[in-house]
Amino acid sequence: MFRRIRTGDIVIAVLVLLPLVIAWPGSRLLPGAGAGAVLGAWGQLAGVLGLSALLVGAMLSVRLPGLDRWFGGLPRIWTLHRMLGFSAFLLIMLHVVLLALGALPVSPEMAATVLFPPLDDGAVWIGWGALVLMVIFLAPTFQFFGRPHYQRWKRLHLLSVPAFLLAFMHVVMLVEHAALWWALVIPALGAVLWRKVLSPRLGRHDYTVEAVTALASNVVEITLAPRGRPMTYEAGQFMYLTPHDPDLKAGRGEEHPYTIASAPGEDALRVGIKALGDASRALQTVTPGTAVQIEGPYGQFFERREPQRRQLWFGGGVGITPFVSGARTLKREPGSGPDVTLIYLANRPERAYYMEELREIAQGHPHFDAQIHYFQERGPVDEAFIRSHCPDLEEREIYICGPPGMVDHLMGLLTRAGISRGRIHTEAFDFL
Ligand SMILES: Cc1cc2nc3c(=O)[nH]c(=O)nc-3n(C[C@H](O)[C@H](O)[C@H](O)COP(=O)(O)OP(=O)(O)OC[C@H]3O[C@@H](n4cnc5c(N)ncnc54)[C@H](O)[C@@H]3O)c2cc1C
């Protein structure tokens, strides 16, 4: 995922490191400054870096269609967001430990006072408040207590806002360069404000459920018609869908990500949805005619550095949806583009949701071939099967979307077969 440095990565690195450069303690880190002074200075730097990582992480929660391209897609932004959150937590813990160790050469009482000063020393206690909130909102993310319920986790995650505001107050009460911290905290707050308050009102498109078509048990394709400004998108992108059907048993008003299965330029927008939990199960019986809102598009799964290179697609289970969009796009542009081979990895025939349509498209398109592999019949897919349908494997750009186990299996198999990782692009339907 991080094989290539993107423009967004550079912006993030500058924003995170800038406070460090400005707050650099200079002479306190020189040899001869004394162990206590050096430890104290490193402690301060850890705090500075921890807070800048926390604020930049908050900025990355913004979710603006188009902006994610600077980072290589929204899933990659989330990975960065998690990495920054995790680093912020470790650095802030280190900040506390190093400050105490820095005071230890004076006396153990001094070390204790640095950490726990008299109650009227508000700045330090405000810092403790920020740290306690961080522990509460980050613990479920790191799955200390097992896999959290997604919606509850999301609500708990809102504690990050008071956490970073308290950490901000702590730092402006204690150090110089307040203007710098204001310059970081304002965009961080703006990002959360956009995401939670403004985007649901200004950033979404209104659609109506036109039809719900069963593809298999627990899998439907929902067709959506625009009620106003339609969303423009590319094959392989995804969106957030918020249904408002008053009869829905679960998930009403909740946003969930789904890959767009229709082709760009179609009048209607289509999504294939498998029941994987409460909200997606309820959507199987969403009422036609009811309103939904969509936000996006996000991602750039089919981003290509060499558009003329032949492609090999692997879709597993409901992870076939970006390739359905890709195949429907090819159907609208017959005769164009490089050769594409799709290998659909399904458990058994009833779980190969779009296979009939994909075969039909392949029959009518000179550059598209669709093959199926049934796990129940043949076990895990192997190199011989892939090569029998795609002998020029090494020459292709490879795209994989499906359950994490399938993605890992294919990544191992392809890299062992000598395919460079830079040629392999993956998308997982799981963000936590
Ligand atoms: C980029 C992307 C594209 C996807 N495309 C499709 C698709 O085309 N078809 C399809 O059937 N499914 C798709 N999914 C999966 C779909 O989003 C989840 O199945 C759905 O959100 C589950 O919600 P639930 O309440 O039914 O289940 P839950 O039991 O609440 O969730 C099951 C798991 O889904 C994930 N999840 C739940 N809600 C969200 C959310 N709002 N944001 C991110 N992850 C969440 C969590 O990892 C959670 O543990 C996609 C997911 C992602 C990340």
From TrEMBL:
Transmembrane stretches, start-end: 39-62, 83-104, 124-144, 156-173, 179-198
Cell compartment(s), UniProt: Membrane
Predominant place of localization: membrane
Membrane topology category: Multi-pass membrane protein
Name the UniProt record assigns to this protein: Oxidoreductase
A GO CC annotation given for this chain: membrane
FAD-binding FR-type domain: residues covered: 202-304
Pfam families, alphabetized: FAD_binding_8, Ferric_reduct, NAD_binding_1
Species of provenance: Thioalkalivibrio denitrificans
CDD domains per UniProt: FNR_like_3 (cd06198)
